[in-house]
């Protein structure tokens, strides 16, 4: 059977299942106070419209059109599930702090990551795994790793930027963040194992948000197989490190896996199983890789057309560099002085949040803003609506890092800046991302000038934002004073 026949057979099967479901389901009476809106066509709902908007970078307008029509709370159907879209700081706070809502990953991600992922754990299990990860991600632990990050960044720039006339930023940022995470999370030095894991990881990411159809020609199948191979690599690394921990031949601070293997409770029992360590090491790799590489890519994009901000950043970093010897690595104290650079990063995250939004699922019948949300329905929150709200951020379309100066955003309502999420599930890797970003920008702005190659300065959001052609730029090497 050729691929076309398989596709046709699959389409007929899915359609038949949908029709049978519609004909045989028992209709339950709907409460009178469901949110306004429509669930649209069966199975399809509004999914295609949202995906088209994201790929054309009009998702923000798509969401706003719904809000203008129905208000900040409305019902729709996305990816085959009844959904309630809620928007605004109060909605964000409700999503982040309500115990009646649980995270819901796409089915493809669930199958690829497995059942021990922190993304899909709730209650005591979530607190146990999150607490273990935070043992490694505490600032007092991370400050020991600044030098290693510095070395990875300098090596990356020397090999991939120096002596080049043009570079494509996004793939380079992705490879650099992968190398940093491999070194710090898995203790992998450069070599065959790191290169193998990098290739498998790239294939995992191609299908992690794909339609979960496990057929030979699908991105999901390739991703699923790559996940299995990558998992086996990490299982081997975990076994080796476990032996060293048991023999007392390694330090708990060596890397994330060693740290997690070393954690015990009050009874002397290990906090995490080997399976949980591997699953959440994969999650840490995915979560730490994409968001930070996107942030740094869009900072480069912004600075190409913002000479005032770039000049101020150069001055900040030259002040730090003049007190250091040639080749001397940055320290935690140096990063604390990069206040302007982090404000630029925060404003970049406000204007182009890496995560469009996320889903929660109602664990029971709940109510928000006077509307009923039935058990099992999805709740969708989005970052852009809040970040571009003129009642919170004056002239929201304007790039203005001073918004984050002297805690000026503290006057805004809680949950107004949600680039890292919020509540008990706020991203545990904020400080790790901050370290990577500050170290990288220190070397880029001091050693290079650049301009965009593409006249059309656009980007698309295929779930995650991606600039046109990966952001090719022309670069000029500068000699620092």
Automatic annotation (TrEMBL):
Pfam families, alphabetized: p450
Co-factor(s): heme
Positions contributing to heme binding: 427
GO molecular function, one term: oxidoreductase activity, acting on paired donors, with incorporation or reduction of molecular oxygen
Superkingdom, taxonomy of origin: Eukaryota
GO biological process assignments: sterol metabolic process
Family matches, as InterPro entries: Cyt_P450 (IPR001128), Cyt_P450_CS (IPR017972), Cyt_P450_E_grp-I (IPR002401), Cyt_P450_sf (IPR036396)
Coiled coil ranges: none
PROSITE patterns (alphabetical): CYTOCHROME_P450
UniProt entry keywords in alphabetical sequence: Heme, Iron, Membrane, Metal-binding, Monooxygenase, Oxidoreductase, Transmembrane, Transmembrane helix
Pathway of action: Plant hormone biosynthesis; Hormone biosynthesis
Signal peptide: none
PANTHER family: CYTOCHROME P450 26 (PTHR24286), OS07G0518100 PROTEIN (PTHR24286:SF335)
Family: Belongs to the cytochrome P450 family.
Protein name as annotated: Cytochrome P450
Species this protein is from: Lolium multiflorum (Italian ryegrass)
